[in-house]
Write a structure and sequence with these properties.
The complex is a heterodimer. By secondary structure, chain A is an alpha+beta fold. Chain A folds into 5 domains: 28-114, Cytochrome Bc1 Complex, Chain D, domain 2 (Orthogonal Bundle); 126-142 and 352-458, no CATH class; 152-334, Jelly Rolls (Sandwich), CATH 2.60.120.260; 463-510 and 743-812, no CATH class; 522-742, no CATH class. In chain A, strands 1, 2, 4, 6, 7, 9 and 12 form a 7-stranded antiparallel β-sheet that branches. In chain A, strands 3, 5, 8, 10 and 11 form a 5-stranded antiparallel β-sheet that branches. Chain A has a two-stranded antiparallel ribbon with strand order 13-14. Chain B has an 8-stranded mixed β-sheet with strand order 2-10-3-9-8-1-7-6, with helices on both faces. Chain B has a two-stranded antiparallel sheet with strand order 4-5. The two termini of chain B are 34 Å apart. Chain B folds into 3 domains: 1-33, no CATH class; 38-180 and 259-426, Alkaline Phosphatase, subunit A, CATH 3.40.720.10; 183-256. In chain B, a hairpin with a 7-residue loop joins strand 4 (108-113) and strand 5 (121-124). Chain B has helices at residues 4-11, 25-29, 94-100, 129-138, 181-213, 218-243, 264-280, 309-313, 320-346, 403-413; strands at residues 38-43, 59-60, 78-85, 108-113, 121-124, 148-154, 284-291, 360-365, 382-385, 394-402. Classes of the chains: A alpha+beta, B alpha/beta.
């Protein structure tokens, strides 16, 4: 329903005209003053201070800049300038000169504007640091990539010992949530809550029949069918083995509920995270937290036994970051092996995000201290695990040589380049010669390597920006981590010699879970959900909406965006236009889709609800909303800033939203219009409201609606494009059709993705960097994965080129 | 009154530096009246042979029986307490209740751990007396120490169950004793060592930063310069705290002593030495030393005994060879007590009068009265040192008093005057009077 607006709403048109007129008036005034100031400056000041305040060698060599306020600067000119004849420039003329100078070169802001954007030396960001040390240490243990979710490998025994002769059942359990009552696993009274509800109903009717059915089901699962022969319901045990995938970085709370004995290991094969082998008193719930890095899988093992207690049950749950407590879903469990990952726990101060994205272009005392303590934490971990990591035993005759070799490799990986002889001497050999014990030498070497700028700072180039720098550029851009062995080898062998070769590596790397993890973080950032608070809604209006639903909605959003981005087409526009939404049984009930109550998440197409991808996703709709009503303003700001990349000033005055209760007969749209009607609001709210209103078909929890306060929803919106065209938006579909046809959203996406991935100003690469990448994006059908690979490759080559030019100009 | 913190302020040191200052308690005590008091509880398992342990008569101690013979040099400074019984009943076998209720005076929770007989049980339902006392000491500025309490062990099996845990921070909160001297060392002195290592490295870091500085552009140098300043400041700060050293040299441990049965004598000595050092530095005033575990199976080959301890303890009284061996085993544990007492007696009280033993009460105990009967009556209790403020050098005999009353006595002796501890039914009459 996209069409050119011909005759508009009178009020809107008027407001717009007023805004335009006043803006024009004020800018005319400023321009006139600037012209006067510039003229006066050139006439009276430039002969001494230079045409741009840069100074002149003969008269006044120092450039004119400082931090005096405009008032002070004016006063100074009135009283002292031109030198010896201050009466020549006073009053309005002095004010005009001061204003011109202030804006053109004097003020700190003007200075920053005049300095051309350049590639700045950057330290590792917090995320890059954590990932790098994890990959650095874990790389010595081998690696694996998350492939399949096939649950955990389960073994059930008829005694408390895990002896082969006592093994009764061996199978895969998609998740661990069992209640055996006073019976045994696979017994007549076993309840698996994830089983379809009909089965439970049967169970009550006829236990014997159920018994047989269960046994049959059991046999089907077993590759080699065994008779379940638990001798005694008083004594049995079980063991689960496999790995658990952490979707996001953060603290994970693991929770085990059982009235029996159990032990749980997570990412540590020697010390259990939870040891409740001794059942004591009424305790039947055990919790412990562990920090995990997102996008990686971690070994998990759990052992369980029953002895003489009246009943037995076991449930393995967790509370993942941004989610509620739940039985660990099958999609996060796998029987695959993964190496133990080193996760640094030293707290770091947050990175500077003042330019809209986190980057490492400043250092602080807290950061330096954190890197010291993190280096110590890592060094101690390496020493404790030295035998395993260096593949040597303390009793080995050549222990020291083996450990020294390990340290050599460790420093090489930390610095992302082979060591020169001087470096090897400084970082390794010298220390091993001085220290008597290999453990002490390792501790010092690792400390020194991790405190070295060669580890802590990004590619500064020791002279030439070589292929190893290219490799690091790729891996930090795509993974926020150090190169893996394959990339490192390619660089050392000189195989990153041209664009095609670099792009091949980038293509490979884009499909690594580390890229997926970084991309997911970007998507949360882009969709402004990375700092969503805990959302709660009015209990009378939305009784079904609770923390569990909100947690489910985040899962639903993640499933959708990951599905789109990592599908073959990886189509950016699908994110904005798809009518598919992931729902489970719980969400289905709330969002009007008939699903089994216990149904797992599945994609559901909802053409009748006029859904449009992330734009109308209930997670965003609830997040950008109040507890009782939708918030067209929050939605509009999100659309303007994130999706369209528009600049919006902070509101001139703080305003509390009008309470719906006080305006019971007004629709949300009417209330927002009333509230933002003052002229001071309109310059921005014309855009904000115009966009936000198009989503009015979705209420405070993102449910589709056609009425509010007994009146039909008006979901018509408007938008003035950057090219000055006014478009009418007819509801969410209208909005998404416009967005799909416009270059603004994809342009904004490229720009934000660039900042997040590269963490340098785009203008530092070329003045039309974003424009150029956007063209490639368009040529490749807006394929996001191709864009990622292209972005990493192009910027790597540009950084190399910039370095070469700098070297050349330095030598000239 | 000048507190420790005030004093540090005068020195110009921050509170953050506190853990690294070692023993300043002499200064802390300058403004307070009472003397420093310490408590050590030593545990050995499987009961004793009563005839070779207990003095025959109450009253002044005569010649000590073979199991106690190593304490001869300390005869005037010890008490034996006969007739104090562990009356706590409930779930669990006697070995489990023996260790689990010994210092808690509270029943075990029902659970899934099955002993030889009786019902299965879990952890103790109460806090242990050492932790109760430590908590009280930590609550007061003048008795607060860096750790509050330290739990030493010697070859405690690497599994957490009712038989391996004696100390409890609260109901269902067993505390794992540290039986690896290197781990204990790291806990006591690790931060000091870390600082030494860091200081040595930070010099090199600055040299490296200077080198890298030459590779980057003039505009980027500022970032590295800033970091160089931070590194230099940290180095200065670290060496400042390091100069304020301990009042004793950091002990050196014989490297590479593995935790196994044959190293028990060596490990015992290392742990006792560390304990004495931790008292010297006033890291703690409460400590426990747990040899093996309830049902412990030490095989004391160094005494030419090839059988394991618990297995021997089941032998009947008529097996004279076994009883002789058990006597030797208990005498060996007694030697450890004597070594601890000797070390404390030799060490002058830092900043105070007399020796450290003058201000320390050591209590040696066991989970059973007698191994082959598994009785919880007449639990062996030996008190040693100058902590009790009563006339020493005596054998006391009580008429079957519940041990909760003795636990109350320990608390009162340490200045924590509570009326009941553990199961209140066994606290009638209040603290057991030892004078």
């Amino acid at each position: 329903m996209l069409r050119q607006r011909v005759v508009g709403d009178v009020r809107f048109a008027l407001t717009l005209m007023l805004v335009a007129l006043s803006a024009l008036a004020s800018s005319n005034r400023a321009v006139a003053e600037d012209e006067l100031g510039a003229k006066l400056y050139q006439k009276q000041c430039a002969s001494c201070h230079g045409a741009k305040g840069e100074g002149t060698a003969d008269n006044y060599p120092d450039p004119l800049f400082g931090d005096r306020s405009l008032v002070e600067l004016t006063r100074y000119i009135v009283e002292s300038m031109p030198e010896g004849e201050p009466e020549l420039c006073v009053g309005e003329e002095a004010a005009a000169v001061a204003r011109y100078m202030y804006d053109a070169f004097y003020s700190p802001i003007a200075q920053a504007r005049l300095k051309p954007a350049r590639l700045q030396l950057s330290r590792l960001t917090v995320r890059q640091y954590a990932n790098s040390v994890a990959d650095l240490v874990t790389g010595f243990r081998g690696e694996n990539r998350w492939k399949k979710s096939d649950g955990l490998k389960a073994e059930y025994y008829k005694s408390r010992r895990f002896g082969k002769e006592d093994l009764v059942i061996s199978r895969n359990d998609p998740q661990v949530d069992f209640s055996y009552a006073d019976g045994t696993p696979a017994g007549p009274r076993e309840v698996k809550p994830e089983a379809p509800p009909e089965a439970k109903a049967d169970e009550k009717k006829d236990e014997k029949a159920e018994d047989k059915k269960d046994e049959k089901a059991e046999e089907k699962k077993d590759e080699k069918p065994k008779e379940p022969t638990f001798d005694n319901p008083d004594e049995f045990s079980a063991r689960w083995n496999g790995s658990v995938f952490a979707p996001e970085t953060g603290d994970y709370e693991f929770i085990v509920e059982t009235e029996n004995g159990m032990r749980l290991w997570v990412n540590d094969t020697s010390t259990p995270l939870i040891d409740a082998w001794v059942k004591s008193g009424n305790d039947n719930r055990y919790t412990a937290s562990v920090r995990l890095l997102g996008g990686r899988a971690y070994r998990l093992r759990m052992e369980f036994f029953k002895f003489k207690e009246k009943s037995a049950s076991i449930r393995l749950k967790w509370r993942a970051p941004h989610h509620v407590e739940e039985v660990i879903p099958a999609r996060y469990l796998s029987t695959d092996w993964f190496p133990t990952t080193f996760v640094v726990t030293t707290p770091f101060p947050p990175d500077d995000a003042s330019s809209g994205f986190e980057r490492g272009t400043s250092v602080s005392r807290e950061w330096d201290e954190a890197t010291t303590f993190a280096a110590l934490e890592t060094a101690k971990y390496v020493v404790v695990n030295l035998s395993e990591l260096s593949r040597s035993k303390p009793t080995d005759g050549d222990r020291k040589e083996k450990v020294q070799k390990f340290c050599d490799k460790f420093v090489e990986r930390a610095f992302r380049r082979p060591l020169s002889d001087t470096e090897r001497e400084f970082f390794v050999n010298r220390i091993f010669a001085a220290e008597s014990s290999p453990e002490d030498a390792t501790l010092r070497t690792v400390l020194l390597a991790l405190k070295s700028p060669r580890f802590l700072y990004r590619e500064f180039g020791q002279g030439e920006f070589d292929q190893l720098d290219l490799a690091s550029w790729l891996s930090f851009t795509l993974w926020d981590s150090i190169p893996d062995q394959q990339l490192f080898d390619a660089a050392t062998k000189g195989q990153l010699q041209d664009r095609a070769a670099i792009l091949r590596q980038a293509d490979r790397m884009v499909n690594d879970p580390r890229a997926k993890s970084k991309m997911q973080e970007f998507l949360h950032h882009w969709l402004r959900v990375d700092h969503f608070p805990d959302i709660s809604k009015d209990r009378t209006l939305y009784p079904e909406f609770d923390a569990v639903v909100f947690s489910d909605l985040r899962t639903s959003l993640d499933l959708f965006v990951n599905d789109v981005v990592w599908s073959d087409r990886s189509d950016f526009h699908e994110l904005l236009t798809s009518d598919v939404i992931y729902l489970n049984g719980r969400l289905g009930a709330l969002y009007g889709v008939e699903l089994d109550k216990l149904a797992e998440f599945q994609p559901v197409s909802l053409p009748n609800q006029r859904r449009s991808g992330v734009l109308s996703h209930p997670y965003l709709m609830s997040g950008f909303g109040y507890d009782k009503s939708s918030s067209p303003i929050h939605r509009g700001v999100f659309l303007a800033k994130s999706v369209l990349g528009r600049f919006i000033k902070t509101p001139p005055i703080a305003v509390a939203p009008l309470a719906p209760d006080l305006h019971a007969n007004m629709t949300t749209r009417e209330r927002v219009t009333l509230q933002t009607s003052p002229d001071a609001c309109q310059s921005c709210h014309t855009m904000i409201n115009g966009l936000g209103f198009s989503l009015e078909n979705f209420d405070a929890v993102g449910r589709y609606r056609e009425q509010e306060v007994g009146r039909p929803i008006d979901a018509k919106g408007t938008y003035f494009t950057t090219a000055g065209k006014e478009v009418e938006l007819d509801g969410a579909r209208g909005l998404s059709e416009f967005l799909a046809s416009s270059a603004e959203p994809s342009h904004a996406f490229v720009e934000q993705l660039f900042q997040f991935m590269v963490k340098q100003p785009a203008q530092a690469f070329s003045l039309d960097e974003v424009e150029q990448l956007h063209q490639v994006f368009a040529q490749q059908n807006f394929n996001i994965r191709k864009l990622l690979a292209e972005m990493a490759t192009v910027t790597a080559l540009q950084a190399q080129e910039a370095n070469a030019q700098a070297l050349q100009s330095a030598s000239n | 009154m000048t507190t420790r913190r005030d004093f540090l302020k005068h020195l110009g040191l921050s509170v953050a530096a506190l853990p690294f200052l070692g023993n300043l308690s002499s200064l802390a005590l300058a403004g307070t009246a009472g003397r420093k008091q310490r408590l050590v509880i030593m545990f050995s398992p499987n009961g004793v042979v009563p005839t070779t342990f207990w003095p025959d008569e109450a009253g002044a101690l005569g010649e000590l029986k073979p199991s106690l013979a190593p304490l001869a040099p300390f005869k005037d400074r010890m008490l034996t307490l006969h007739g104090v019984c562990d009356k706590i009943r409930g779930d669990g076998d006697n070995h489990m209740r023996g260790i689990g209720c010994l210092l808690t005076g509270s029943e075990l929770f029902p659970g899934n751990i099955q002993g030889g007989s009786h019902t299965p049980a879990g952890w103790s339902s109460g806090i242990s007396i050492d932790q109760e006392i430590a908590r009280a000491l930590q609550a007061r500025e003048e008795t607060r120490t860096r750790f509050g309490s330290l739990e030493f062990g010697v070859v405690v099996p690497d599994r957490a169950d009712t038989w391996t845990r004696m100390c409890y921070a609260g109901p269902n909160q067993p505390i794992a004793p540290i039986d690896d001297p290197y781990q204990m060392f790291a806990k006591l002195y690790g931060q000091l060592q870390d600082r030494a290592k860091l200081t040595s490295v930070l010099d090199d870091v600055q040299a490296d930063l200077a080198k890298v500085r030459s590779f980057v552009s003039a505009q980027d140098r500022q970032l590295l310069d800033e970091q160089t300043t931070f590194v230099r400041e940290m180095e200065q700060q670290l060496s400042a705290t390091q100069n304020t050293s301990l009042n004793h040299p950091v002990p050196e441990l014989e490297p590479g002593v593995r935790e196994d049965n044959d190293n028990i004598p060596k490990l015992s000595k290392m742990q006792i030495d560390l304990m004495v050092h931790s008292f010297q530095a006033d890291f703690t005033r409460v400590a426990s030393l747990q040899f093996t575990n309830s049902v412990g199976q030490a095989r004391m080959k160094w005494l030419e005994i090839d059988e394991t301890h618990h297995t021997l303890s089941h032998e009947p009284d008529s097996n004279e060879d076994a009883q002789a061996k058990l006597t030797k085993i208990n005498a060996w544990y007694c030697e450890q007590l004597a070594y601890l007492a000797k070390r404390l007696a030799e060490t002058p009280e830092p900043g105070g009068e007399g020796s450290m033993l003058d201000n320390t009460l050591i209590v040696w105990t066991n989970e059973l009265g007698k191994g082959n009967s598994h009785t919880l009556d007449n639990i062996p209790w030996v008190c040693l040192g100058g902590g009790l403020n009563v006339e020493m050098g005596r054998a006391l005999k009580f008429k079957s008093e519940p041990h909760n009353r003795l636990l109350l006595t320990l608390a009162h002796t340490m200045g924590h005057e509570i009326d009941r501890f553990g199961n209140a039914d066994y606290c009638g009459g209040g603290p057991l009077v030892l004078s």
